[in-house]
Specification:
Helix content is about 30%, strand content about 20%. With about 475 residues, it is α+β, with helices and mostly antiparallel strands. Strand 11 and strand 12 form a beta hairpin.
């Protein structure tokens, strides 16, 4: 696996992962099933020449070529993507879990940037930023009107440079400036704790290069605190995915050795693969199994996996493998449905191409693509239900999404009806004061879904959802 990753580039299983650039004609022809369309290529060259010579003002020819490549790849599916020098660097930061910035997890609220949590030990943490702080300005730029990604880009930069954040702290009703010096941040993709004697919770927020090592440390820490663990909750809610080998490793931590974790199928021979719960499929260094020191009890401890509509790709691989092998009870909501493989092929020292090369299949042979994983037990976000879940985008909602490959898709009128009802409820919810709209933090004492998972592990009655709609159709069910 490690050698294969080096040959083809990174194989990314996450919604965030990607890369692309310019390939020589020889490289393009290598993967083609037909000769290059010379007439169309001549037209492309003619258009390039006309734009270069006739457009109302001068244009940068490198940007023209870059935009042409971007358009060609973007027309394939939502996850194939071309990356220039800057975006390729951002991709690498995303998979390593390292970046240069201020060190905060953020979301949007009322058009402003909300601090969800400062990363412990980061410049933002040391500067005293707190959860629920609102960022109103970044340097001289007002935040209102910026997208989340635009705000992130403005806060990131070169190490040892400064950024001025204007903060509104609601509970103190005051606005104040904070100057923060950027530095390299190492994100934590693994959190966990003993919830009560005998029962623990581990949350994975992404599958990065460091995730497996951090997972092993957290498991060892939990077992040291409570050696007689009776049950474990693996929380994959809102986990967008990440690296395939990390997903295989996390699955292997709980499964018998050598069983199938996931398979892939595509046009190229290298896209037809079976990944098993064995070190050669997930170790990054030859002869080094990152799971070798895990407690033996992890293979048999009763396990519940929490998922929701935000669980995608690598997290769906883990949930699907543990479900098919009957190693865990999957609880929550139907997952996102990103079951396609993106292979990142470097096109030069600082550019690359992320292209969809295969589909993922669970051990039973079921396609994850545009379908997702259906939990064994459907559980809502709160005792009142999941009123806004129907509004969340899933893979099947994305324009030009890849089909499952296991039967035609159809629109579900019940889901459209649920969306209309959710929109009305959201309008009413928006009228409430912000403090009444607070969503419980994952892992908190008022985390309803987690409470149901713990009840399941104890053999107690679980409050099952009565309203969730499974996105599927009869044609696909017949094929599975």
């Amino acid at each position: 696996m490690g050698q294969k990753m080096k040959i083809t580039g990174w194989v990314a299983a996450g919604a965030f992962a990607g890369a692309l650039t310019t390939v020589s004609l020889q490289t393009v022809a290598r993967g083609s099933l037909a000769p290059l369309p010379l007439e169309e290529l001549q037209q492309l060259a003619a258009v390039f020449g006309m734009v270069k010579s006739d457009y109302v003002e001068p244009v940068d020819e490198k940007k023209l070529i870059s935009d042409a490549i971007s358009g060609m790849v973007a027309g394939l599916d939502p996850h194939s993507q071309y990356f220039d020098k800057k975006s390729f660097k951002e991709f690498r930061e995303g998979t390593t879990g390292r970046f240069v910035g201020v060190g905060i997890e953020i979301s949007q609220e009322d058009g402003l940037i909300k601090v969800v949590s400062p990363i412990e030990g980061s410049p933002a943490f040391r500067a005293g930023l707190k959860p629920n702080d609102l960022i109103t300005k970044i340097d001289d730029t007002a935040v209102r009107g910026l997208t989340l990604n635009e705000a992130v880009k403005r806060m990131r930069g070169e190490a040892n440079t400064k950024v001025l954040l204007t903060i509104f702290r609601k509970d103190e009703n005051r606005t104040f400036p904070v100057t923060i010096t950027r530095e390299e941040i190492r994100t934590q993709s693994v959190r966990g704790k003993v919830m009560e004697p005998g029962y623990a919770w581990i949350r994975l927020s992404q599958f990065q290069e460091r995730t497996v090592d951090d997972f092993v440390k957290k498991v060892e820490e939990i077992y040291k605190q409570d050696p007689n663990l009776k049950g474990l909750v693996l929380d994959l809610r809102n986990d967008p995915g990440g690296l395939l080998d990390a997903a295989v490793a996390i699955s292997a931590a709980f499964l018998p050795e050598n069983v199938t974790v996931v398979s892939t199928d595509g046009q190229l021979a290298e896209s037809k693969s079976i990944y098993k719960a064995a070190p050669e499929f997930y170790q990054r260094r030859a002869g080094s199994d990152p799971l070798r020191n895990l407690p033996a009890g992890l293979k048999t401890v009763p396990l519940v996996v929490l998922v929701n509509e935000g669980s995608a790709s690598a997290s769906e691989i883990v949930a699907g493998a543990l479900q098919d092998h009957k190693r865990a009870t999957i609880m929550g909501s139907q997952t996102f449905g990103k079951g396609s493989v993106q292979t990142v092929r470097p096109l030069g020292p600082d550019t690359g191409l992320k292209i969809t090369t295969a589909r993922y299949y669970t051990p039973s042979g079921t396609s994850i693509q545009a379908k997702g994983i259906v939990p064994n037990v459907l559980v809502d976000e709160s005792a009142e239900g999941s009123p806004f879940a129907a509004l969340r985008m899933r893979e099947a909602d994305l324009e030009k999404h890849l089909a499952s490959g296991q039967g035609p898709e159809s629109k579900d009128p019940e889901r459209e009806k649920a969306r209309d009802e959710a929109r009305k409820r959201l309008e009413e919810e928006a009228k409430k004061p912000p403090q009444d709209r607070k969503v419980p933090e994952f892992g908190a004492t008022d985390d309803f879904a987690l409470a149901q998972a713990l009840k399941s592990l104890k053999g107690q009655p679980v409050m099952v959802s009565k309203t969730q709609i499974i996105v599927d159709n009869k044609e696909e069910k017949k094929d599975n």
